[in-house]
């Protein structure tokens, strides 16, 4: 299947779809929820800071400004205070973070403000990521070393999915949103976009070969294709070691 290269390179792996955390809230709070929340906030802050610094090195400029808004939300005491207040009243972490997101959405809808609605959607993604980091959900992240196939990429996907070490990304959107493209560039993993039909023609577990040098996705490649890919990787490693010695 043809596509448009975003981050050049080649990758081979099993197809996986982006996932979201379970929507079924825990019935009882868990001991240590507040401590796990603080750890998740710290981890998220560090990950977002790394993305901001990488954007500066790549010269992405204003295109990456939206990442700063997530940093502001992580540092916002209202997020901490609202979540901890719910925890203190006996809510589970799932319920507490959900309340924070719903409150922001309701406030934005009441004021009929598009900027606030966008911020509320961003906060919802951030709360989902914090939940997975604080209370790992085995079903929320794809298998390790996978080829992730999706329509678009969000900050939740970056914060959660990248921890499993995907080797390639395939986006199906015809005109990828600026945010998706920026996030792909920041990840630096072989990626192609505008791959029409990728979700329809692939299934989780299929083997996929991403050629982001030429903008091609091969589903269930032949043994010859796989052998050629692995031979190329071996040559690259030998070349890299030789360059490193010099």
Q: Taking all residues together, what is the mean pLDDT?
A: 85
Find the count of extended strands (DSSP E, 2+ residues): 7
Helix fraction bin: 40-55%
**CATH superfamily name of the largest domain?**
Phosphohistidine domain
* The CATH architecture of the largest domain: 3-Layer(bba) Sandwich
Fill in the CATH topology of the largest domain.
Glucose Oxidase, domain 1
Derived structural class: alpha/beta
Question: How is the main sheet built?
Answer: 7 strands, mixed
Strand and helix order: EEHHHHHEHEHEHEEH
Number of helices: 9
Helices and strands in order, then pairings?
Elements lengths: L3 E4 L2 E8 L15 H26 L7 H10 L1 H12 L4 H19 L2 H21 L11 E5 L4 H7 L6 E4 L6 H10 L3 E3 L4 H4 L5 E5 L4 E4 L3 H23 L1
Parallel strand pairs: 2-3, 3-4, 4-5
Antiparallel strand pairs: 1-5, 2-6, 6-7
């Amino acid at each position: 299947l043809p596509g448009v290269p975003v981050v050049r390179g080649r990758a081979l792996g099993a197809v996986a779809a982006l996932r979201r955390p379970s929507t079924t809230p825990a019935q009882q709070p868990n001991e240590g929820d507040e401590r796990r929340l603080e750890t998740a906030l710290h981890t998220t802050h560090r990950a977002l800071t790394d993305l901001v610094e990488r954007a500066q090195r790549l010269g992405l400029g204003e295109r990456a400004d939206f990442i700063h808004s997530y940093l502001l939300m992580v540092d916002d005491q209202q997020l901490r205070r609202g979540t901890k207040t719910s925890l203190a009243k006996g809510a589970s972490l799932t319920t507490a973070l959900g309340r924070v997101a719903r409150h922001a959405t309701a406030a934005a809808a009441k004021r009929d403000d598009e900027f606030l609605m966008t911020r509320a959607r961003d906060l919802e993604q951030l709360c989902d990521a914090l939940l997975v980091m604080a209370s790992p959900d085995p079903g929320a992240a794809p298998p390790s070393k996978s080829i992730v196939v999706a329509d678009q990429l969000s900050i939740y996907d970056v914060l959660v999915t990248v921890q499993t070490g995907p080797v390639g990304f395939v986006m199906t959107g015809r005109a990828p949103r600026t945010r998706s493209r920026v996030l792909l560039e920041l990840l630096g993993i072989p990626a192609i976009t505008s791959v029409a039909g990728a979700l329809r023609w692939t299934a989780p577990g299929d083997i996929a070969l991403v050629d982001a040098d030429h903008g091609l996705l091969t589903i269930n490649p032949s043994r010859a294709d796989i052998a050629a890919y692995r031979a190329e990787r071996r040559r690259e490693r030998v070349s890299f070691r030789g360059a490193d010695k010099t």
